[in-house]
Amino acid sequence: MITTDRTEFRAVLPTGGRLIGLDVGTKTIGTALCDAGWSFASPALLIRRTKFQKDKLALAEMIAAQQVKGIVIGLPLNLNDGSESPRSQSSRAFARNMADLGLPIFLQDERWSTVAVTRTLIEQDASRAKRAELVDKMAAAYILQGAIDALVAI
């Protein structure tokens, strides 16, 4: 199941469970994990993209090792009107290709994730190199935290 409806996603996970958040870029995939009770999301690994099957295998191994019950993928909508963008279609295609892992997938609006994380890192005086290393996995945590906050509110 792939959905943008948080109520539908919540319904297939009635007892919660660990979730993985993904910020899918063209060069990297930022990952984050949350606890089974959906309290907090934390940045995890940064996966450098290669071929899709290798990327998927790395994610599948992480999912199995962490006993993940669902996947949250950032959906990059247009900032001004929330409409779909070419990057949105790319994220949807990524989700379709991950569907055979058998986990429910929630597409979470990620319009402000990278901007918010970058601002935070600049405020913390992180160097440009440090920001480049952290921004995608921190964005994944931001996306995942937004999703779990919304899911808990249901």
Summarize the structure in words.
This protein is 45% helix and 22% strand. The protein is α/β, with parallel strands linked by helices and 154 residues long. The chain has one domain (2-152): Nucleotidyltransferase, domain 5. A hairpin with a 3-residue loop joins strand 2 and strand 3. Helix 4 (113-123) packs across helix 5 (128-152). The two termini are 19 Å apart.
Question: What would you say about this model in short?
Answer:
The protein has one domain: YqgF/RNase H-like domain (Nucleotidyltransferase, domain 5, 2-Layer Sandwich), CATH 3.30.420.
Task: List segments where confidence is low: pLDDT < 50 over at least 5 consecutive residues.
Answer: none
**Number of domains as seen in the coordinates:** 1
* Radius of gyration over all CA atoms, rounded: 15 Å
Secondary structure tally, helices: 5
The major pleated sheet works out as: 6 strands, mixed
For the termini, the CA-CA separation is: 19 Å
**Percent helix among the residues?**
40-55%
Subcellular location: Cytoplasm
GO molecular function, one term: nuclease activity
Keywords: Cytoplasm, Hydrolase, Nuclease, Ribosome biogenesis
Organism: Sphingomonas glacialis
